[in-house]
Write a structure and sequence with these properties.
Elements (H helix, E strand, L loop, with lengths): L3 H18 L3 E8 L13 E10 L5 E10 L9 E10 L9 E10 L1 H6 L23 E9 L14 E10 L10 E11 L1
Keywords: Signal
């Protein structure tokens, strides 16, 4: 039989888990990074375009559709370094997201990109129509039903109400952060409600 003192923490943990699972995600924007002036005709290899948002049965926009354009062939390598930055943004405004919560650098192989569901890249991985090539070949491709799920970000940030941004900067491994070594960059803005 459990003592009263050991029941209380279990009860509180159960309440917190239930509250987190009841939260909803509402995507407000997906775009190429505004503060990184990549030239998609020369420097950058990958960009997103024609993004649309799909609402779930509760009316929250948690699913994305759009195109991604691959401008440069990647024959020698397709592994990347993903610099993932999480921001807390002002609520109710379109102001800049300056409050950095955390920044991570992840080594992403093609296999990890396609199979590891523990990171924000997995919002896009299953939705890409040439996913097995990991954006290796030049062309215009679709991503369909890219879904924001809490399990993709819970290892990186606390899931609680607020307005957030995830910036994923696609970088050539082992190189400095010079613009020539950036393959692309996207920002995903969303509310947790």
């Amino acid at each position: 039989m459990l003592k009263k003192s050991s029941i209380l923490p279990i009860f509180i943990l159960t309440i917190l888990i239930s509250a987190a699972s009841a939260l909803n995600f509402n995507i407000t924007n997906l775009s190429n990074c505004a503060d990184i002036p990549l030239d998609y005709t020369q420097d950058a290899e990958i960009e997103v375009a024609d993004v649309s948002y799909e609402a779930n049965e509760k009316g929250f926009f948690d699913t994305l559709h759009g195109k991604y354009l691959v401008h440069v062939h990647q024959i020698d390598h397709i592994d990347i370094e993903l610099v993932i930055t999480f921001y807390k943004c002002p609520v109710g405004t379109i102001g800049p997201c300056k409050d950095v919560l955390k920044e991570y650098i992840e080594a992403i192989t093609c296999k990890r990109f396609l199979e590891d569901k523990s990171g924000p890249w997995y919002v896009f991985a299953p939705a890409m129509d040439n996913k097995n090539l990991c954006a290796k070949l030049v062309g215009t491709y679709q991503f369909t039903k890219a879904h924001l799920n809490g399990t993709y970000i819970e290892n990186y940030m606390t899931i609680e109400e607020g307005h957030y941004r995830i910036r994923m900067l696609n970088h050539v491994p082992g190189k400095d952060m010079d613009i020539r070594n950036l393959r692309g960059c996207v920002e995903l803005d969303f509310d947790i409600m």
